[in-house]
């Protein structure tokens, strides 16, 4: 005995009518018995016997009863149940008929899927799947179908002027990388793939198309010279602008080498006490001056007073950062000045830096002249890092890609980002 019209309103599914409802008791053994709500539905005449691929009506040949998990009702698990025929489609042959409340061959209804994907976007999947009372794998499947549904027929590369190409490592152990292409205008992901291979980036440029490649690419400068090569080959008109963060990192690395060498020399000379790693001092050297703590400022002052070569190196690194801050002709002047100072400093580490900066000068000029503001790129980078950290439990690159795409690709309608 059921007031079908109320249940129709509750389910709010077009082209479906509720036939009856019932309660089932689960499971028979071990766990505490649970009441399950079963809502028996059927597609209306309009939606009945449709081919899931072409929408044409087919001839039913046999029938099967199926259940779909849907949104909980008053804390109880709820399932839709319906007889689903297999039909003979003139075009697609024998196939299970479409139902209006779920994707083809899915075990979950559309509202359940939306809800689950939204939850997965906001919390670790282990937690979300426990809350939803589904397995981790089921949640992974739901998010991937939701992401695929949202991207279908969408050209996510349309109208882009500037993109960033980046590598991100994820998960424990080495060798786990993602290649991520971001839109500078929106800070969203345009494209993402597992690994860091020339082939995957080539595939991206092929998808982008040569006519659309008059764009600026913003790529990491270090360790990824191959990205430059691929961009030059696949998008010859593109202006390559090395990433500020990576260029400044070169200076930081030379500074680290210098510090290690000086400490080793002190130890050899019998001054092991002075050579003891100046932890605070080293952190101070790496940080932006405006972010220094009082202790780090003191440590830096001590370096300035007692370790001239190291302090000189620090100033060169900061001047490089400043060049990217002021940009344009002023930035170029600062860059030229610091390169000549680095060359003349009689510090091999900084002579090496001068060489690298000179080799990449034209590209660095691109960044100084046309480079994007770093705010969005940095924000997206920080969000991706947070996602990767939060996602320690991700068991596959596919799941991580799906989630990153879903949350940061602008696909998730309720995404907090
Ligand atoms: Zn068909």
Question: What is the percent of helical residues?
Answer: 40-55%
Structural class: alpha/beta
**Rg, Å, rounded:** 29 Å
Q: Mean pLDDT across all residues, rounded?
A: 81
The description of the largest β-sheet is: 5 strands, mixed
The low-confidence runs, each spanning 5 or more residues with pLDDT under 50, are none
Total number of distinct structural domains: 3
Bound molecules: zinc ion
- Looking at the structure, what is the overall shape? elongated
Beta-strand percentage range: 15-25%
Order of helices and strands: HEEEEEHHHEEEHEHEHHHHHHHHHH
Distance between the termini: 46 Å
Total of DSSP H or I helical runs spanning 4+ residues:
16
Number of strands: 10
Give the topology, please.
Blueprint: H1 4-11, E1 16-26, E2 34-43, E3 59-73, E4 76-89, E5 93-96, H2 110-122, H3 125-132, H4 136-151, E6 162-169, E7 177-183, E8 189-194, H5 198-208, E9 216-219, H6 225-234, E10 239-242, H7 244-268, H8 272-275, H9 279-286, H10 294-306, H11 308-326, H12 328-344, H13 348-359, H14 361-370, H15 374-390, H16 397-408
Parallel strand pairs: 2-4, 6-9, 9-10
Antiparallel strand pairs: 1-2, 3-4, 4-5, 6-7, 7-8
Bound molecules: zinc ion.
The site of zinc ion (ZN) has 7 residues, from loops.
